[in-house]
Amino acid sequence: MSLMHELGTVLLRKLPAENAHKLTIKALGGGLGPKFRASISSNLAINVGGLNLPNPVGLAAGFDKDCEVSTPMLAAGFGFVECGTVTPLPQHGNSKPRLFRLVEDKAVINRMGFNNAGLNKFKNNLEKRKLKNGLVGANLGANKNSKNRVEDYAIGLKSLWGLSDYFTINISSPNTPGLRDLQNENAMEELLGRVSEVRAQLAGGKPSYPIFLKVAPDLGLGEIERIVEQSRSYGINAIIVSNTTLARPSSLKSKYKIEKGGLSGQPLFDLSTEILRQFYAAAKGKIDLIGVGGVSNGLQAYEKIRAGASAVQIYSALVYEGPGLVNAINTDLLLRLKADGFKSIAEAVGKD
After folding, report:
1. What pTM does this model have?
2. Mean pLDDT of 114-142
3. Between the chain's N and C termini, which has fewer beta carbons within 10 Å?
């Protein structure tokens, strides 16, 4: 990472968290982001859920809610970029302050509440992407006051079909009341059934865009096995493990640890990785997994991969490490693959 980007990261951390994020989006839109090749070696390429990724490090949803900077983030070296969460109608989200840096813990707590400009703005930004030289996904959510949340996901699919390279059904944010109830057996049956129905209609017998499911880390073993089975039965292509947690590890030091919302960053790593291992054991290689939660360096990305992830996503670590992190992770992954005698990422998946 250049000195300019290092200084930019330090200066942004002196601003209130949400203001810093808005300024980051503006800077990236103005062309001030780092530039790296999306893949530095064919050894990092991998197919995940039907997507041919140049490298396994993706940008998690939440960073680019309205799909404003997917092109500069791809230019920064990400193997894929997930935009959103987008809801059918615009919504302001929860009242401020709602985003907190736990600097001592290298963590973030957010209770944003799916703040976004809505599907129309998201769609317009997808349509005017300057370079179609990378994979961009849409993370779909439901409006807080929706009378039919299942239908909100159907609306998202219909609106963005043909524009997004893949879709993620996000039912795991803790900041929209009742949203995680969609992870319950009967509710998930209804939701995935509707998603499957809409997908079949939109594909019209042609190959479909991949659809992923994003789950919470706060799940029991029985729930994990059931979610894997339901996902497989409805043709979900991959499961993203996991979203933020409501848990508060006793190790937290920051004064903000008492704030309500989802915890992400370093303290989530162990919990999310253990849940990932349980998903990998339940999946038995029949559905791909993407590991999210606390990844801030190459070793942690590699641990996620060896625990069962075919790819990883990062977000919170960018707050502390800056945008050059993705290239550093990929460089480190190559060295670790070589040291362990693997010729590809796929060979290392689930080795632990």
Report:
1. 0.96
2. 92
3. C
- How high does pLDDT run on average in the chain? 94
pLDDT in tens, 11-60: 677 788 999 999 999 999 998 888 887 667 999 999 999 999 999 999 99
The CA distance from 215 to 304, in Å, is 16
Active site annotation includes 70: no
Quick one: how far is CA 247 from the chain centroid? 19
- Please confirm whether the linkage preceding 242 is cis (ω < 30° from 0): yes
Q: What letters, b where the CB count within 10 A reaches 16 and e where it falls short, cover 142-173?
A: bbbebeebbebbbbbbebbbebbbbbbbbbbb
Asked if residues 236 and 91 have their Cβ atoms less than 8 Å apart, the reply is no
Handedness of CA 304, 57, 173, 187 (dihedral sign): negative
pLDDT at 3: 44
Q: Which of 159, 172, 173, 208 is catalytic?
A: 173
Examine the pLDDT at 133 and tell me if it is beyond 80: no
pLDDT value for 150: 98
C-alpha span between 301 and 320 (Å, rounded): 16
Give the mean pLDDT of 185-192: 98
CATH superfamily of 3-348: Aldolase class I (3.20.20.70)
Q: Do residues 213 and 171 touch, judged by C-beta distance below 8 A?
A: yes
CB 167 within 8 A of CB 209: yes
The rounded distance, in Å, linking the Cα atoms of 53 and 45 is 6
Q: Where are the alpha helices (DSSP H) in 162-268?
A: 185-203, 221-233
Three-state helix/strand/coil letters over 110-139: ECCCCCECCHHHHHHHHHCCCCCCCCEEEE
